[in-house]
Amino acid sequence: MAIVTVDQLKEQLNLTDDLGSGDDALLGRKIAAAQGHLERLLGFKIEETYGGGGQEPIPPSLIEAVCQLAAHWYENREGAVVGATAQALPFGLSDIVREFREWSFDG
To answer: Does the global pTM surpass 0.85?
Structure first.
């Protein structure tokens, strides 16, 4: 189950109602991929750690991370962009992951 809905991602992307539901399946795939990627970076499944009975609610910054990444992948559907200058967003995905990541060191 995703921590972000298609409607929340549409809001993040500032998509208007005239788009309808034509991209809903694509948006759903972007959400699932973004959450899966974030969970692998974090080292835990978000919904097993937050939001359940007796657990703390899902942190808004994790929801934001999924929204940012899914929106980025929706708007930039190719692996590379030519002729553009890229830079990391402040307080982006890496910062959020660093804040919540479960670190472990073996031997």
So the answer is: no
